[in-house]
C-alpha cells in the first residue's frame, strides 16, 4: 500500500528540505505521549515528565490527541520558519474551519476519519457525528472536542500557550542539541538534490520513499492507499531527531504535502518497504528454502552443491534460489564457469533474531 504525491511538472526547487521547530516539538510531544514507540528516548521522556510543573503536565494530557496517534496537520509547517514563535504565528493565521477539522481528525481517531462539508462548526448533524466519534475514543477526547467546537478561539489560544510553555520547560534545550544533526542532514539532502536530482535525495530520506519511474510521483510506503498532489506549492521534507522510527506525511485535501522523516543514525540501514518484507516472509515460508539458507549460512555455494547436499534436482534448486534472490536474501556472483550464491545476512538478521538463530544453528 502506498501514498502517492503527484509532482508532475513541479520544478526541483519546489521540493524543499528544511528544519522546523514546531514539527520537532510535535515529535517530542509524541515521544512523551507514546514512549513505548521510542525506546531509545525513554530516559529522556522520563526525565522530562519528572521535571514538568503539574499544570503543564495536565495541559499536555488534555491536548495530547493532537500528536499522540497522529499529528494534526497544522503542526507540520509547509513553510518552516527559523523560530517556534514565527511558526505558531503562522498557525494562528489558519482559519477556524481548517484548524478545527485538522484537530478533530486526530481527536476522533486518526487520519482515517474525515470531516467534509457541512462543517461541524456550523451543522448540528456533523457536530453530533464528531462528538460521537470523540466519545468512542474516551472521555478526555470527548471533552476536548466539545470545548473545541464550542469555542475554537479559546482552545486555539490555550494550545498555543501550552506549546510556548513547553519551549521553556524542555524544548529549547532539546532543540539546541538537535541543531547539529539536523543541519548536517539538511546539507546532505540539499547537496544530493542539487547535484544528483530528486531520486537521489528521496532515496536518502528513507527506504520507504521513492520516485516513480516516470518521475511524476513520489511514492511513500504507508499502510493505506492514498493520493495527493503538490501542485504549484511543492513538497516540504522536514528532518527530525526525535521522530524515529516514524515517517509522518501531511496529505489531506487543502494542505500542502509535508513529509517528516527521521534523521539517519549510524547503524543498520533504514526500513525496507512492506512489499519487500512480505516477499521475504513468503520466501522463508517454504521448508526447502529454509534448508538452503541453512547451508548458505555456512558460506557461498553453487546450485550443484546445494542440489547434492539436499538430494534435490538442480532445476528445483534453481527455482527456490530465484525466489530467495527476488526477496533480496541472496547475492549471486559468477566465478569462471560457476555461479556462487551468498546469503545476505544483514537482511536476514533484520527480520528477527529467532529466525536468524534457526537458520544458523
What topology does this entry show?
Blueprint: E1 2-6, E2 15-17, H1 21-33, H2 42-51, H3 54-63, H4 84-92, H5 96-107, H6 124-137, H7 139-150, H8 152-195, H9 198-205, E3 209-211, E4 217-221, E5 226-229, E6 235-240, E7 248-250, E8 258-262, H10 274-284, H11 287-296, E9 301-302, H12 303-310, H13 314-326, E10 330-335, E11 338-343, H14 345-350, H15 353-360
Parallel strand pairs: 1-5, 2-6, 6-8
Antiparallel strand pairs: 1-4, 3-4, 7-8, 9-11, 10-11
Helix pairs in contact: 1-8, 3-8, 4-8, 6-7, 7-8, 8-9, 10-13, 12-13
What does this structure look like?
- The protein is an alpha/beta fold.
- It contains 15 helices and eleven strands.
- It has helices spanning 21-33, 42-51, 54-63, 84-92, 96-107, 124-137, 139-150, 152-195, 198-205, 274-284, 287-296, 303-310, 314-326, 345-350, 353-360, and strands spanning 2-6, 15-17, 209-211, 217-221, 226-229, 235-240, 248-250, 258-262, 301-302, 330-335, 338-343.
- A four-stranded mixed β-sheet has the order 3-4-1-5.
- A hairpin with a 2-residue loop joins strand 10 (330-335) and strand 11 (338-343).
- Helix 4 crosses helix 8 (152-195), helix 6 (124-137) runs antiparallel to helix 7 (139-150) and helix 10 packs antiparallel against helix 13 (314-326).
- The longest helix is centred in the middle third of the chain and has 44 residues, at 152-195.
Amino acid at each position: 500500500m502506498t501514498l502517492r504525491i503527484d509532482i508532475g511538472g513541479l520544478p526541483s526547487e519546489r521540493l524543499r528540505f528544511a528544519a522546523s521547530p514546531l514539527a520537532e516539538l510535535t515529535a517530542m510531544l509524541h515521544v512523551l505521549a507514546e514512549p513505548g514507540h521510542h525506546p531509545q528516548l525513554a530516559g529522556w521522556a522520563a526525565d522530562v515528565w519528572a521535571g514538568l510543573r503539574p499544570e503543564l503536565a495536565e495541559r499536555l494530557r488534555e491536548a495530547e490527541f493532537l500528536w499522540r496517534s497522529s499529528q494534526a496537520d497544522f503542526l507540520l509547517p509547509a513553510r518552516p520558519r527559523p523560530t517556534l514563535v514565527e511558526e505558531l504565528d503562522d498557525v494562528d493565521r489558519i482559519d477556524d474551519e481548517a484548524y478545527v477539522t485538522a484537530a478533530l481528525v486526530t481527536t476522533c481517531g486518526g487520519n482515517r476519519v474525515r470531516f467534509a462539508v457541512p462543517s461541524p462548526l456550523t451543522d448540528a448533524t456533523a457536530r453530533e457525528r464528531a462528538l460521537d466519534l470523540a466519545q468512542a475514543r474516551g472521555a478526555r477526547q470527548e471533552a476536548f472536542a466539545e470545548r473545541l467546537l464550542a469555542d475554537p478561539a479559546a482552545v486555539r489560544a490555550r494550545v498555543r500557550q501550552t506549546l510556548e510553555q513547553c519551549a521553556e520547560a524542555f524544548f529549547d534545550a532539546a532543540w539546541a542539541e538537535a541543531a547539529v544533526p539536523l543541519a548536517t542532514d539538511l546539507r546532505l539532502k540539499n547537496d544530493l538534490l542539487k547535484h544528483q536530482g530528486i531520486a537521489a535525495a528521496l532515496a536518502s530520506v528513507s527506504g520507504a520513499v521513492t520516485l516513480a519511474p516516470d518521475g511524476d510521483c513520489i511514492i511513500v510506503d504507508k499502510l493505506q492507499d492514498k493520493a495527493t498532489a503538490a501542485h504549484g506549492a511543492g513538497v516540504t521534507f522536514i528532518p527530525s531527531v526525535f521522530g524515529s522510527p516514524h515517517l509522518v506525511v501531511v496529505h489531506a485535501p487543502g494542505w500542502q504535502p509535508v513529509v517528516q522523516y527521521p534523521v539517519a543514525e549510524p547503524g543498520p540501514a533504514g526500513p525496507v518497504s512492506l512489499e519487500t518484507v512480505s516477499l521475504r516472509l513468503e520466501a522463508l515460508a517454504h521448508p526447502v528454502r529454509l534448508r538452503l539458507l541453512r547451508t548458505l549460512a555456512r558460506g557461498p555455494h553453487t546450485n550443484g552443491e546445494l542440489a547434492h547436499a539436499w538430494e534435490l534436482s538442480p532445476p528445483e534448486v534453481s527455482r527456490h534460489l530465484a525466489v530467495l534472490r527476488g526477496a533480496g536474501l541472496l547475492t549471486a556472483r559468477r566465478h569462471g564457469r560457476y555461479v556462487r550464491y551468498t546469503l545476505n545476512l544483514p537482511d536476514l538478521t533484520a527480520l528477527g533474531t529467532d529466525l536468524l538463530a534457526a537458520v544458523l544453528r
